[in-house]
Amino acid sequence: MSKFKTKITPYLFIAPHVILFIAFFLIPTVFGIYASFTRWNIFSDPEWIGLDNYRLILLNYESTFHRQFWNGLRNTIVFVIITVPFQIIIPLLIASLLYLKPRARNFFQAVFYLPTLLSITSVTLTWIFIFNRSLGLWNRLLGVDVNWYGQQPFAWMTIVITTLWWVIGTNMIIYVAALNGVDRSVLEAGSVDGAGGLRRFWHIMLPSIKMPVMYTVVTSIIMQFNIFGQPLMLTEGGPSESTFVLLMYIRNLAFGTGNPIAGPASAMATALGLVIGVVSVGQLIVVRKAGEGD
Predict the structure, then answer these.
(1) pLDDT tens-digit map of 121-155
(2) What percent of the chain has pLDDT over 70?
(3) What does the alpha-carbon distance between residue 253 and residue 260 come to, in Å, rounded to a whole number?
(4) What is the bridge-based pairing of β-strands 38-39 and 47-48?
């Protein structure tokens, strides 16, 4: 009995996580993939139709679903391309400054990390007031009258700024922790040899934290492919659906007003998952090769 308790104890500790994972991730994912091969309005039983939904969203140029899928995917990719570089570079610069100038480091770490503890809804509501055309702080400070949500490129700017303010603290903490392992004597030796701050950063500090940086690139791209709340609340997908990302189309089709169209919505969600999976695998291959190079 004692040996049995010893063997089963670890499984009891992980059981709650496994149960929640199966109930709220694995089962919905499997059912969502199944639903992508059916005609289903949520209220009735799914009717198997094979690849029709995928032909509809991928190949049927006359279909509204086709236009929505490719417009949503394009806007999602645009957001990823714009946001991720800033999501890596800004925290890296902040962490490097905190490493080189450690005075009040804990205070600034707390300041930058605090927004990550808030929900995206709370963060977005804050920036909605800041970018408000009539009463917003931004227009008052700049002395302008800009409709930030109603015209481009300002609509994308509001989404990107809101997102970065929310997420940069997470990567910053990772970089700070990684930089703490960098030997300061190496930097001092480089300084004695005449290396400037930029050269020390590029040739000493950055190579020392290469793997954490690559890890944050992978996780940041995956995270930003799931963009939803910011454009939904800030721009509602406008102007002219230029910020209507794929998850917004999926949500409207499956859970919007009127008759739910869950089949094409599930096909869009599955296709997005495949895109994220391919991108993630590609990045992991690069990370692995970089690790082997070390």
Answers:
(1) 999 999 999 999 888 888 988 888 999 998 999 99
(2) 93
(3) 6
(4) antiparallel
